[in-house]
Structures are given as structure tokens and as C-alpha cells.
């Protein structure tokens, strides 16, 4: 029997297992130092694969829909940060200061690619526009996220460092491998497509290694002593409020501006997502190792929540197709 879409997916279960392993058996000493060095190469490989998988044809097919892309980018990099800052007096008391720092970091991240496109397809949205918009968000995030971190989180961890230095590290560790992978796509694109199922595990395994390394450092620094159980419950509420408000706003503004049903679906699913795959490596690059564990925890909660809620929403959109056509 197929697993319910409301249950955690295998990757989320693997993330939970990784966090548990880091909590019980954190890497320390020479092992921790070795993993820190290994994650640099792993993150570069991750973004190299993202670049190689990016279809130039699909991006060009959807690039002309500039009003839709502008709305998605605005939701991703403006609406989210504004909500995170505006709601801080109301939501911050539900969690610890470290967790709300992670919430604000979540708010400045780019949109996810895979799930946004998948949900757009299920719901019957504009696939070309979804591919273009989600891919553009990932590329823009390499430049915009460090700037927003410096503006929104001036006191958080290594975000105190110069914003240009943060952009430089992102460019070197993320953008350069991404561009290299995309330029090599004519030669390796076929291999990537043929072995997509196997490479998915390389993709996810890279994230798991970075999560384990970050959480190991955080646990060694006393992470769980600083995060009481009520704060973790409060984090779920905070993430639910953010997701609900963004889903509601993107739906309302898409209809208000007269977008078609297909465009509305693309706006809703691309404008409400935050990328775990991009966010974890970015946190590793932008923040100290001990701070990164607590900072990525809200992103992990939001990741699962957006999958569950958007799975239900996509099915609702899909069921409306006959009525809309008839």
C-alpha cells in the first residue's frame, strides 16, 4: 500500500536518523576536523550536480513570463523576510533566540526546485514557468541570500563578517561548481539523466553528511541543553504560521492580478517553498559550525511541513481541473 503523503518521506526519515546519530554519537576531535574538510568537497559536488541537471531549454521556454517570475522572486526574497521580521515580537517568544535566528535564515533562502516542480505538475500548473522560476531562485539565492543574511541577521554567528566575504565564499564553494556543471551539461547531461535514480542518493547523501557535521558541532557545544521541548513545539507553530501566510498571500495576489489558473498554481508552489538542499550548505558556509546546527533545524521542520501541506493542496487543485474545463 502506498505511503500517505502526510507521512514523512524517506529523506526526512534519513534526516531525523542523522540528527539522532549526531546527538548520540557526535563527531569530535580529528574525526570532526576531517568531516569539516570533507563537507567542502561534498558541497561543491552537490552544486556541480545541480548545474549539470539544469535544462537550458526548459529555462528558455519559461523565461518570457516575467510577471510571474517577479512575483515568485518577490515572495521568496521579500515577503518571507518581511514576515519573519514583522512577526518576531509575536513568534519569537515561542522559541529560543537561536531557533528564531534559524527561522530568519529560513526566510532569506531560495526556493526549492524539485518539489516545487513536482507539485506544479501534480496540480496542473505551468511546468516551463515553474522550472524557470525555481531555477532562477536558486541562482539568485547565491547572491541575494548572503546580502539578506547580513541585513536580517547582523549579529548571528559569522554573519558579523563582511557581506562581500560571505558572497565570495558562496561564489567559490557553490557558484563556481554550479557553473562548471552547467557548462559541462552537453557532455555529461545524458549520463546524469540515465543515472538520475542513483545520483539522487549522492545528492541526498551530501546533505546528510553536512547535517551530521553541523549537528555534531552543535551538540558538542550544548545544543540540546539550550533547546527545551516547548521551544521545539513552538517551532512547529512558527513554521506553520509562516507557510500559511505565504500560501494565502500568493493565492490571493495571483487571483487579484488576473493570472490564469495554471500560473496561479506555479506562483503558489514556487513562491512558498524554501530549499533544504541549498539552505544546509549555505548555512555551513555562512555560519560557524556550532551555530549551523540550530540554524538549520527550523529549515528541516519547514521542509517537512511544506511537503505535507502542498501535497494536499496539489491534490485539491488537480481535482478542480474537470470543473474548470467544463
Q: How would you describe what is shown here?
A:
The chain has 326 residues and is mostly helical. Helix content is 81%, strand content 0%. It has a single domain (21-316), classed as Up-down Bundle (Na+/H+ antiporter like fold). The protein contains 17 helices and no strands. Helix 7 packs antiparallel against helix 14.
Main attributes?
transmembrane helix; transmembrane; 0% strand; mainly alpha; 326 residues; Na+/solute_symporter_sf; disordered C terminus; Na+/H+ antiporter like fold
List the helices and strands and how they pair.
Blueprint (H helix, E strand, L loop, with lengths): L9 H15 L4 H25 L2 H7 L3 H21 L1 H4 L5 H11 L6 H10 L3 H26 L10 H21 L1 H10 L1 H25 L2 H4 L2 H28 L4 H11 L4 H11 L2 H31 L1 H5 L1
Q: Helical stretch count?
A: 17
Task: Give the helix level as a range of percent.
Answer: over 70%
Q: Name the average pLDDT.
A: 85
Provide the gyration radius in Å. Answer: 19 Å
Structural class: mainly alpha
The CATH class designation is Mainly Alpha
| Count of separate structural domains | 1
CATH fold group: Na+/H+ antiporter like fold
- What characterizes the major β-sheet? none
Low-confidence stretches: 157-161, 322-326
Task: Quickly give the CATH architecture.
Answer: Up-down Bundle
Q: State the distance separating the first and last CA atoms.
A: 33 Å
Global shape:
globular
H/E series: HHHHHHHHHHHHHHHHH
Strand proportion, as a percent range, falls in under 5%
- Total beta strands: 0
Keywords: Membrane, Transmembrane, Transmembrane helix
InterPro entries: Na+/solute_symporter_sf (IPR038770), Put_Na-Bile_cotransptr (IPR016833)
Pfam family, one: SBF_like
Protein name: Sodium/bile acid cotransporter 7
Amino acid at each position: 500500500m502506498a505511503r500517505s503523503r502526510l507521512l514523512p518521506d524517506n529523506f526526512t526519515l534519513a534526516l531525523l536518523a542523522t540528527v539522532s546519530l549526531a546527538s548520540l554519537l557526535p563527531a569530535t576531535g580529528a574525526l570532526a576536523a576531517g568531516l569539516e574538510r570533507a563537507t567542502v568537497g561534498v558541497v561543491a559536488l552537490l552544486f556541480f550536480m545541480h548545474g549539470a541537471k539544469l535544462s537550458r531549454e526548459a529555462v528558455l521556454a519559461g523565461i518570457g513570463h516575467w510577471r510571474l517570475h517577479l512575483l515568485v522572486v518577490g515572495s521568496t526574497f521579500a515577503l518571507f523576510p518581511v514576515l519573519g521580521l514583522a512577526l518576531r515580537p509575536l513568534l519569537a517568544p515561542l522559541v529560543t533566540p537561536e531557533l528564531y535566528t534559524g527561522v530568519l535564515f529560513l526566510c532569506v533562502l531560495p526556493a526549492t526546485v524539485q518539489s516545487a516542480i513536482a507539485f506544479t505538475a501534480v496540480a496542473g500548473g505551468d511546468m516551463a514557468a515553474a522550472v524557470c522560476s525555481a531555477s532562477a531562485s536558486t541562482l539568485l539565492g547565491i547572491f541575494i541570500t548572503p546580502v539578506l543574511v547580513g541585513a536580517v541577521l547582523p549579529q548571528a554567528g559569522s554573519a558579523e563578517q563582511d557581506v562581500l566575504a560571505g558572497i565570495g565564499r558562496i561564489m567559490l564553494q557553490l557558484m563556481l561548481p554550479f557553473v562548471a556543471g552547467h557548462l559541462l551539461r552537453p557532455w555529461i547531461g545524458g549520463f546524469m539523466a540515465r543515472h538520475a535514480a542513483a545520483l539522487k542518493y549522492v545528492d541526498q547523501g551530501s546533505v546528510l553528511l553536512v547535517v551530521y557535521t553541523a549537528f555534531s558541532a552543535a551538540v558538542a557545544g550544548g545544543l540540546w541543553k539550550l533547546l527545551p521541548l516547548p521551544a521545539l513545539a513552538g517551532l512547529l507553530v512558527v513554521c506553520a504560521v509562516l507557510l500559511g501566510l505565504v500560501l494565502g498571500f500568493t493565492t490571493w495576489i495571483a487571483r487579484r492580478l488576473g493570472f490564469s489558473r495554471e500560473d496561479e498554481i506555479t506562483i503558489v508552489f514556487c513562491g512558498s517553498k524554501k530549499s533544504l538542499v541549498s539552505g544546509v550548505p549555505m548555512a555551513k558556509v555562512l555560519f560557524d559550525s556550532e551555530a549551523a546546527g540550530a540554524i538549520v533545524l527550523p529549515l528541516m521542520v519547514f521542509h517537512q511541513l511544506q511537503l505535507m501541506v502542498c501535497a494536499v493542496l496539489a491534490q485539491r487543485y488537480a481535482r478542480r481541473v474537470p470543473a474548470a474545463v467544463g
